[in-house]
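The following block was generated as part of the benchmark described in Methods. Ligand: zinc ion.
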Amino acid sequence: MYRVVVGIEVHVQIKTKTKAFCRCLNTISIEPNKNICPICIGEPGTLPELNRQMVIKSLTAALALHCKINETFHFDRKNYFYPDLPKGYQITQYEVPIGYDGYLTIFTDDSSKRIGIERIHMEEDTGKMLHDYQYSTTLIDYNRAGIPLVEIVSKPDMGNSDEAVAYVKMLKRTLEYLEVSDCSLESGSMRCDINISVNKENTPLSHKVEIKNLNSFNAIKKSIEYEIKRQTENLDKGLSIETETRLFNTQTNKTEVMRTKELAADYRYFREPDIPDITIGKEDFLTGQKAIKELPEDMIKRFRKDYSLTLYLSDLLTSDKKIAEYFEKTAKICNEPLKTANIITTEIFGFLNDNSISIDKIKLTPEDLAELIGLISKNKISYKAFKDRINDLLSGNLDIESFILESAIVTDDIKIAEVVNKVINEQNDAVEKYLKGKESVFMFIVGQVMKELKGTGEIEKVKLLIKEKLDLLARNQKPEQ
Ligand code: ZN
Ligand code: MN
């Protein structure tokens, strides 16, 4: 038997007005090398100036992850030579991270688990290299150099790919709720490195394989599954596994060797002499603390308890703060949480996906949706008509008043009977089959009548009137037999 140990290092860009140690704007502008100054490209004689907002937002993240806080800390230099690093070193926190020893709760298969957080520290981002293979040349854009990052290092507490994905998803959701970062894996404002080690049960960890720069949940899942298979097969053959850095190839779904890992000593860390020791002031501490409202992990628990929703629905509804707010507002007005949850996670999610928009762009307000749900429950409008026209309601092509008028349930006997007569006259074949004893045709006729009524016929009444009409036809037929 084998045991799998997974730990994750995540870098996220912090949403601040300016960069970490200079006053350049924290935006990736379209034009390369536009947001740069002598400080962030490391010209000699310049001095870094610490961004207070970066410290406060990192503190918020650390507190939200239940970390202990080093209220007094300093920065260190991590030295290495690479073209995207203009100073020749990265300013980071090595000795004293702002936060340590915390946890994040994840939910899998109806149970919850705490994943330990080893440390969370601040550092600056590097520039970006663009390789032009056609002209075999490399271009460098320093706009990203000096953008503030927070790095979150988990403890090796995950045992499979599902837990790893759940962890990254919950971390992303948490930092988004806190407005610390927009956490986009696709655009690179959130970047994941996975550490994985497979060992025989009851033996110590013999090695660590790092998979760099995973930029989708699918890549995280697939790369871990591939490594478990690769390492297990090697152990089965009696081979040892190298400690090394690998890259995930999204074409083959396999990991490939990138380099054998350099040792920490290679970076020749030392204290950053240009930034003095920092102690977080009381006021800044309070500001950082106040930014924490309800955390997603607590919201999931509350949704399950207060609205009696499943973990599955609670998880979906809290995936985005705006969706959670939309749900709560609607459910509170109509007092039908389950129906609201189902409509949001099927019809509305479908519309958002198809149109690649967020929930604040839809034209149906929570008040409107609550009213419609109320009318459906009271059998005043048809659910089928609602499902048929919801896209028009969401896009604003149809206003709610017109919709309520056109989809009001028809309970009037005379009106339904008219449609029943019309359909029975038109569907000679079906009626004949029914009269010969093929009873399954009955529901077909019901369907035809409902279609004619655009789904708004009161179903029991429709069935009753069709039955009466068909019985009458059957009686009239009898003398001929
Ligand atoms: Zn700058
Ligand atoms: Mn780092």
